[in-house]
Amino acid sequence: MSTPFYVSPQQAMADRAEYARKGIARGRSLVVLQYADGIVFVGENPSRALHKFSEIYDRIGFAAAGKYNEYENLRIGGVRYADLRGYTYDRDDVTARGLANVYAQTLGTIFSSAAEKPYEVELVVAEVGETPEGDQIYRLPHDGSIVDEHGSVAVGGNAEQISSFLDQRHRDGMSLAEALKLAVQALSRDTNGGEREIPAERLEVAVLDRTRPQKRKFKRIVGRQLDRLLAVDGASTEAESSAEDGSEEE
Fold first, then answer.
1. Consecutive sets of 10 residues in the chain, 250 residues long: mean pLDDT of each?
2. DSSP code per residue over 166-219
3. Are the CB atoms for 38 and 172 separated by under 8 Å?
4. DSSP β-ladder status, 203-209 and 38-44
5. Rounded Cα gap, residues 189 and 192, in angstroms
6. Are the C-beta atoms of 61 and 55 separated by less than 8 Å?
7. Residue 152 burial (C-beta neighbours within 10 Å; 0-12, 13-18, 19+)
């Protein structure tokens, strides 16, 4: 009988991490930014049916880069966890921190298991607070670790360069239009430092808007509302777009 090929645990984990990172890097990047009235999610996504951003619960949103079937399974599991916890206890007991811990345990177990491949996904779980100081944004890499982010975060293929761009330009108190344009500028930059144009129809945009009177703060920004936010600066545009909070919301 031949001797089995030995690989040290450290090397095995390093190989699994490299495998997951390469898979995530093949996906399109997305960014999540705080603005004055909430949190905005922006990503390049030509599909109108396969969403990168989703609502998990009243004040909680979900964003993911990587393999769609894998992060969709995680999203569904998160919705089930949130619904069960909110029904069993209280709606206020469903928090982004609790959800991030659940995702971290799942991703960590899969990553350390030799029986299956690691998930090629990177997640962002965000919760909008009553004030900007109460906002929470957690990034979860493929290995199940949790990173508490503030201001802005990028995940996906070109995340490091995009994050550097956002760190230099993002500021507190930005309007939705300003935050959206900054996100598009960051996503438009390629690895060589050049810029390309991303048309509105290839953008997926959603927000957690703390000013909404409903319990559910998540809504998608589409159509004319998105076009106006991209085209015009100023608070008047935001007022107009928020007034259209009807057929264009989820």
1. 68 89 89 96 91 96 95 96 96 95 96 88 96 95 94 91 92 94 90 79 95 95 92 50 46
2. HHHH--TT--HHHHHHHHHHHHHB-TTS-B----GGGEEEEEEETT-SSS--EE
3. no
4. antiparallel
5. 8
6. yes
7. buried
